[in-house]
């Protein structure tokens, strides 16, 4: 009797893109789940995580991102309502203003003190962790 196939989590990436003036870039998703989110998406087979983060950011915002650091990997099985994903989050910087493209209905830069409330996935948690890190230098504890 054949064993059932493994059901492994799917790797994804997200990018916190810092712009001048203390702003970060969010996209409004065109596909379910809809709402505001960090630019990101699924890692292609054979693609390194950092390359996926740069690619997804550019596809969704039109910005060329320079990654500064790998921030944290979020793996709560409930973080994505579609399926179990693992998201490695990067912090990057870019010049210019974002333009929504690919599966982003809109891309916009937000001041850190005026982020939208309607965030998808666990991106509210990610951004709260990021704000703590920027303020104190302390990273999320495991």
UniProtKB/TrEMBL annotation:
Assigned protein family: Belongs to the Nudix hydrolase family.
Full protein name: ADP-ribose pyrophosphatase
Enzyme type, top EC level: hydrolase
Tagged with keyword Zinc: no
Domain of life, per lineage: Bacteria
Key words, A-Z: Hydrolase
Any GO molecular function: ADP-ribose diphosphatase activity
Gene3D superfamilies recorded: Nucleoside Triphosphate Pyrophosphohydrolase
Annotated Nudix hydrolase domain residues: 8-133
Family matches, as PANTHER family: ADP-RIBOSE PYROPHOSPHATASE (PTHR43736), DIHYDRONEOPTERIN TRIPHOSPHATE DIPHOSPHATASE (PTHR43736:SF1)
């Amino acid at each position: 009797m054949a064993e059932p196939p493994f059901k492994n989590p799917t790797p994804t990436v997200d990018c916190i893109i810092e712009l001048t003036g203390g702003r970060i870039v969010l996209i409004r998703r065109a596909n379910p789940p809809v709402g505001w989110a960090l630019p990101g998406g699924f890692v292609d087979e054979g693609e390194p995580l950092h390359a996926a983060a740069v690619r997804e950011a550019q596809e969704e915002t039109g910005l060329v991102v320079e990654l500064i650091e790998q921030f944290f990997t979020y793996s709560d099985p409930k973080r994505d309502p579609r399926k179990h994903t693992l998201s490695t989050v990067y912090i990057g910087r870019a010049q210019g203003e974002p333009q929504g493209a690919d599966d982003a209905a809109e891309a916009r830069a937000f001041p850190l003190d005026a982020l939208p409330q309607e965030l998808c996935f666990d991106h509210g948690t990610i951004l709260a962790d990021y704000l703590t890190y920027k303020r104190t230098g302390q990273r999320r504890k495991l």
